[in-house]
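Q: Give me the 3D complex with arginine.
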Amino acid sequence: MKKISPVSRSGRFARDPGADVAQFTESISFDRRLWRHDILGSLVHAEMLHKIGVLARAERNAIVHGLKAIAREIEAGKFRWKPELEDVHMNLEAELTRRVPAGAKLHTARSRNDQVALDLRLWLRDEIVLLLADIVHLQRALVSLGEKNADVLIPGYTHLQRAQPVYFAHHLLAYVEMLERDCERFWDGYSRVNVCPLGSGAIAGSTLPLDRVFVARLLGFVNASGQPQLTQNSMDAVSDRDFAVEFCATAALLAVHLSRLAEDLILWTSAEFNFVKIADAYTTGSSLMPQKKNPDIAELARGKTGRVIGNLVALLTLLKGLPMTYNRDLQEDKERLFDTADTVRATTQLMAAMLRNTKVNHAACAAAAGDPALLATDLADYLVKKGMPFRQAHHVVGAVVALAEETGKPLNRLSFADLQSVDKAFGRDALGVFNLQRAMAKRNLTGAPGTKEVAKQLARWRAQLS
Ligand code: ARG
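A: Here is the predicted complex, encoded as structure tokens.
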């Protein structure tokens, strides 16, 4: 059988690479997933070459038919990828040229350097759109869980110590806010992904009269006002992977947010908190302890954050010492980028599904939120309203808390006399601050966990996400 050499070696090389070299250098095992985008780029490039007179109509048609036939075969799983052809670009070009002689003209004024930059940008554009949809689903799951448990109060924590009461929904909406910022960052990055590098050639463009604007328009590289977006420096265009770094950085922050949500769920499912119950489908058992139900999905969501952060560091490290322009090192960008996209998309989807299958334990939440100590600050505010400076009020309430501890009574069970023994400023109405419902009704600043405010925020998000 005749050996197939990569087209890139055809003229100058006397010998093919050894098997070890081929294996070390190939990227087809992972970049084949770019095939749709590679074919799309080639279809448009062919169209443009026809427009400027490099391809005759019949040649253009033959290339288009050939590429579409190859696409159908890949789709059907019938295409044979050849590792000896290194990467997705050369596999597709070689197969096209084998079938259609005009395929040999397709690489006119195009290098794998601008081709791979194009494919990555096209692929990432799609991926961002899909990821944004995943994030919106997760936001909706958070809002729904909040709505379903709109009356539930839990302690809010600082330092993982009980601090002040909050609506459970308020806690969930904190994540909706974080995820919204993530969406904004992805969209912002999208505008820098959405720039067409084709026409940059290997490094220095081409002497042929390519129509870059035509290509950019056909591939949808236009801004919000419909203006074509072209890279403005051919050297930058073939060596730039900033858009991938930005995506990985934004994704790392998203992963951190998902990890924190996962951690809250892990805490909440423990017997110590017992605030929520995750459906069996999203938990796993222990191989040894029959009673265990472990929040493995949440733990993996938290754990996978490590690789997403690692991918960002790997990409930055990959770029830091590169001389201009394209260097083969850049082939190492793909697995990091793919892994980041795959990981954050799967995690976002799983977290949404898990939340849709999570039930809140109202009794346990009520018991925890009913701890009167959570309203100690409200008692200080009471004294402030009587004219006492806050620092003094803080001190006085501290003494009240100490007294409650000494006498073994909960704060709200102290008598009027007990309070008076600490400070004469306390009136008979002082213990009224421990009415939790009333306390929550008073927290009506914008962004506060008050009854009306949280309802308003839930309604705002419901409207915004639908
Ligand atoms: N497989 C290569 C990559 O992923 C494609 C570009 C190769 N270009 C080159 N001049 N060797 O980066």
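A quick observation: The first strand starts at residue 153 and ends at 158.
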